[in-house]
């Protein structure tokens, strides 16, 4: 099992490949992208960071370390906490199942290729799958 992280716009312009099952992991559909153009297998938006965490982070690289800690805690809670919303539990479980079955490419639309939730999610999946 290999987990790849691929920027949506790189995939669409042909400068990146997305091996395995392709999963959009953004909570919001990428701006300027038609749904029929993406060609993804799944959209697991509830596996993305909560709205509150996303708003707090605001793509600030200086907050990335704390964002990583908080987002991983959200993902852990989705696996263990019965209080976590059903959608998050279902999407995280499905993502782990997909990763356990073969290669997965996580698609994201953030501008920063190093400081984004898909990078954190990929590491978390590698630790848990």
From TrEMBL:
This is MarR family transcriptional regulator. It comes from Corynebacterium frankenforstense DSM 45800.
